[in-house]
């Protein structure tokens, strides 16, 4: 049975996705679950897996194409099977145009000049395998200067390694030191960075934010981490587990503003803000209130590693109902975070640092962590958010009793 390969939609607001590279060629065999193509959506760069075993056929979109979500871009069929026939004439014409636009003419022989230039994808950039692209980014190699030796002039990993070993070409001298120091062209934003700019502006201008701040005595939190294994668990693991459990008792804080009213989400899905090369992605731990600490730690580690490697899947970033942004590892004491729409709140977490505090009428030193809750006033009021934050503080200050 033929299975379609479509551009995925991660959320209602997403309209398109950009195809970066196919990891299989048309006509090749694929295995269900293996990486099939690499795409860039409004949220993240990720790999899509093959939906079934079979042969990749009827590819209609290529590297560089911006494709509407839900559009079929290829089929996976059984050996000897043909893909379904397009019934819509306009769609068929568009698919044919897309298929032929990137294919070389059979009658045209490559000239010597063309052979000396890197092959390009349909967006005008060099044709390069996903592996070679990652190597180039890691080693800072300019792929536009590489002549590929792979099929159809594609740049391979070996091409990038050879270019890295040869070193960068000498740059032409600047006209004057002043001219060289002043950038003349703005660097274009990636899809992730562009979406961050759009979403934070949308959230800040449309959602009536208010902020509640609470200092937490992290003495017991530190002890719990030491007891259960400092190398095994991070403070973020405890935060996710405890926040999720408290959210289950405060459904409004886990709600969504729909434009017409409040929607109560049936599950508690914690979104972790993870810094990546071009911005921040929210990787989601679904049903976090039902998971034990070990399961949360394993899921958090896996998501963080794949996010930084650009290998998240669509399901990894979809369905978040509440976000945690922890900047404590960067030495930040406290900050206000902008809510991720359509969520109702986000928790900003600062570092744990020793402070002089009053203790039973005396002066003492305690490890203190500052947390800041940003809330949408359309969903919750100040008193409701305060009760949630108070319950969360109690859980964080007695973590083993609350897990």
Count of all domains? 3
**Corresponding CATH architecture of the largest domain:** 2-Layer Sandwich
Return Rg in Å: 25 Å
Structural class: alpha+beta
Uncertain residue ranges: 87-118
Secondary-structure element pattern, one letter each: EEEEEEEEHHHHHHEHHEEEEHEEEHH
CATH topology term of the largest domain: Chloramphenicol Acetyltransferase
* First-to-last CA distance: 47 Å
Please give the number of β-strands.
16
Question: How is the largest sheet built, in terms of strand order?
Answer: 9-16-15-14-12-13
What percentage of residues falls in helices of 4 or more residues? 25-40%
Kindly estimate the percentage of residues that lie in beta strands according to DSSP. 15-25%
Oligomer: single chain
Number of helical elements: 11
Task: Report on the biggest sheet.
Answer: 6 strands, mixed
Question: What is the level 1 CATH name of the largest domain?
Answer: Alpha Beta
- Tell me the name of the CATH homologous superfamily of the largest domain: Chloramphenicol acetyltransferase-like domain
What is the typical, i.e. mean, pLDDT? 82
What's the shape? globular
């Amino acid at each position: 049975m033929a299975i379609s390969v479509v551009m995925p939609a991660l959320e209602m607001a997403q309209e398109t996705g950009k195809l970066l590279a196919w990891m299989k060629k048309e006509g090749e065999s694929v295995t269900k679950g293996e990486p099939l193509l690499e795409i860039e959506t409004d949220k993240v760069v990720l790999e899509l897996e093959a939906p079934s075993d079979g042969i990749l056929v009827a590819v209609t979109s290529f590297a560089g194409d911006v494709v509407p979500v839900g559009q079929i871009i290829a089929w996976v069929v059984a050996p000897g099977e043909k893909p379904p026939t397009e019934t819509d004439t306009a769609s068929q014409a568009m698919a044919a145009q897309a298929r032929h636009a990137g294919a070389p003419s059979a009658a045209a022989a490559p000239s010597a000049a063309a052979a000396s230039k890197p092959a390009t994808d349909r967006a005008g950039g060099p044709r390069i395998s996903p592996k070679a692209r990652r190597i180039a980014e890691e080693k800072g190699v300019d792929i536009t200067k590489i002549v590929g030796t792979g099929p159809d002039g594609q740049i391979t990993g070996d091409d990038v390694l050879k270019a890295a070993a040869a070193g960068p070409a000498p740059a032409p001298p600047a006209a004057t030191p002043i001219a060289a120091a002043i950038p003349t062209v703005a660097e274009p934003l990636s899809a992730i960075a562009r979406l961050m700019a759009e979403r934070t502006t949308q959230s800040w201008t449309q959602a009536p934010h208010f902020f509640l701040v609470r200092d937490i005595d992290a003495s017991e939190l530190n002890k719990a981490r030491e007891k259960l294994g400092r190398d095994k668990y991070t403070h973020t693991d405890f935060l996710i587990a405890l926040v999720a459990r408290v959210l289950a008792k405060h459904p409004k804080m886990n709600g969504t503003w729909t434009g017409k009213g409040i929607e109560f989400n049936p599950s508690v899905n914690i979104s972790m803000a993870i810094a990546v090369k071009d911005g921040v992605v929210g990787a989601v731990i679904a049903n976090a209130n039902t998971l034990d600490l070990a399961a949360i730690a394993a899921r958090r580690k896996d998501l963080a590693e794949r996010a930084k490697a650009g290998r998240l899947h669509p399901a990894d970033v979809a369905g978040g109902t509440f976000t945690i942004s922890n900047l404590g590892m960067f030495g930040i004491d406290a900050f206000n975070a902008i809510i991720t729409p359509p969520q109702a709140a986000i928790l900003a977490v600062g570092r744990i640092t020793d402070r002089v505090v009053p203790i039973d009428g005396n002066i003492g030193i305690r490890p203190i962590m500052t947390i800041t809750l940003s809330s949408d006033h359309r969903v919750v009021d100040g008193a409701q958010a305060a009760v949630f934050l108070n319950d969360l503080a109690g859980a964080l200050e007695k973590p083993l009793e609350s897990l």
